Predict the structure.
Amino acid sequence: MLRAHSRLFEHLTLAGDLGLIALCWMSAYAIRFRLMPVTDVPPFQDYALQLLPILLVWGFAFRAFDLYRPNRLASHLSEWVDVAKASTLGALVLVAIMTFAFRGYDYSRLVIAFFWVQSIVAVSFSRAVFREALRFARRRGYNQRYAIVVGGGEPAAEVLRVLSRRRDVGIQVLGLLSDKADTPGIDAPRLGGVEEIRAVLDRQQVDIVFIALPHSEYPRLTSVLNEIGDDPVAIHFVPDVFGLASLRGGVEEFESIPFIHLRESPLYGWNRVIKRFLDLVVGGLALLLAAPVMLAIAVLLKLASPGPVLFRQERMGLDGQRFRMLKFRTMRVDAERETGPVWARPDDPRRTRLGTFLRRWSLDELPQLWNVLRGEMSLVGPRPERPSFVEEFRRRVPGYMLRHKVKAGITGWAQINGWRGSTSIEKRIEYDLYYIERWSVGLDLKILLQTFWHGFRNRNAY
């Protein structure tokens, strides 16, 4: 019965899409020859001749891109991309048909262009509306599919949490097949052990099986699949990457081979370009605005104590690369001659009087805007540390080096939340990794605004 309903749904959806395609073709003709100025209007009959090949080509293209496969877990974006690909393929084939099979007719290129754009927009919009209507119905208990989860531990718990949160996909979990009678974090009835899957499928209506075995139980996967056999259920395998993925994991397909990324930087492609553009624009503007203040500080430093105005210190940045970070000098010239590299502390005798003021208000960090413009740092990111401290911290704190998957920053998520200076390094790393995992332009702007809103003064800056 479900398969018959799916086929009927597929045929109705295809008919609706092709009806929209026909309307788009007629609309493109009307826009070009009725709404735009033109001296010679060709008869519509010439364009109506193309409706049959258009419907055949678009029907084939939509099926070729698998646009009618039931997929409750797919995203709107992936469907829109497939619609665009199918319509582009259809437009190319249509041009070829017009060129070779209808040589006696002169078809407007603008009509084809309007039609191509409208076909993508109209079909994508109609599908989005339809999907939202389906989600509305599913949240109220209609159009449901029934699933079981095989496995235990974090993979199974995550599947149950997501499906419980996303009622709109219309998947009801009947229960869990796990060898453990009580699994922490899992709120679902236990239907039996993993080896009882055949009995559960025989006695209950099941449409979907989620196999979410812990990594240690992967040898049982073949046995589970053999027990399912040729039962007409959808099978989704959930890999146990929760204990392995350490930073922004993801799945990508290359030449039909699925790759699971266990560790990936968020800043690649357009993300990297956008963040660099933000650094150049905002950083350049900030440097111009801060120039008078920086000049005044430089003069005061020169008058207050002997030595250079700027202090250059080696720090570790993106991918562990070292660079010279700039600061206004706040300590005497030979500050570390006796102690070596150490953290600044309250009432540090190495500081100058002016240096104490600059550090308290973070004004000594202003020269780092030049590091930003040079591409060595970013406005927002984890604060860079000295290589000697990095070696110590990576031994003490698991995952410490992951913070170097992005550029170091003048300010960051840890800093605006109070984890700066002589504070818990573990908490700083926790906040740094939170920032990297959830990076977005919006988060960067939020951090910058909070940095300026709360001011530069920090009680932990010594």
